[in-house]
Amino acid sequence: MEILIGTISGIVTAIGSGGGTILILLLTMFLGIPQHVAQATNLIFFVPTSITAIVMNIKNKNINFKVGNIIILFGVIGAIIGAIVSSKIQVQSLRKLFGIFLLFVSLHEIYNFYNLYIKKKNTNNNFEYKKEVDKNEIN
């Protein structure tokens, strides 16, 4: 099970879609690992998988280093604050907060999917219909 969880999380990490989030979810659901331990395990997982993805993205020239350096600085500050706060929260509360976080991420992704595919498809269909109407009016 650990091999499958690691592989799935690694793939999701490499495409930049939150492999750590998936990892935490899978560790708690399928292996019964407590939330604090799953989140800390995610940090160990994150370093080598991120380095691998970073190297590949540098080769493909997909990284904006100017923006990256700024978010690294404040990300480190946020990580210190988050580690301190997380250690003071009880496991059940931490799980609930993580669930709420996943809910917001899910809603955001559904909204983006709708805007990108559904709304665009409807706009394109209206455009095709309008082209057909205009074509018939000319004839």
Jot down its keywords.
single chain, 139 residues, mainly alpha
Please tell me about this protein's structure.
The protein is mostly helical. It has 2 domains: 1-63, no CATH class; 95-131. 87% of the residues lie in helices and 0% in strands. It contains 5 helices and no strands. α1 packs antiparallel against α2 (19-30), α1 (2-14) crosses α3 and α2 (19-30) packs antiparallel against α3. The protein is globular, with a radius of gyration of 21 Å. The mean pLDDT is 83.
Give a short synopsis of this structure.
The chain has 5 helices and no strands. It has 139 residues and is mostly helical.
Strand and helix layout:
Blueprint: H1 2-14, H2 19-30, H3 35-59, H4 65-87, H5 91-138
Q: How helix-rich are the residues, as a percent range?
A: over 70%
- Give me the number of helical elements: 5
Distance between the termini: 65 Å
Quote the beta fraction.
under 5%
Radius of gyration: 21 Å
Number of strands: 0
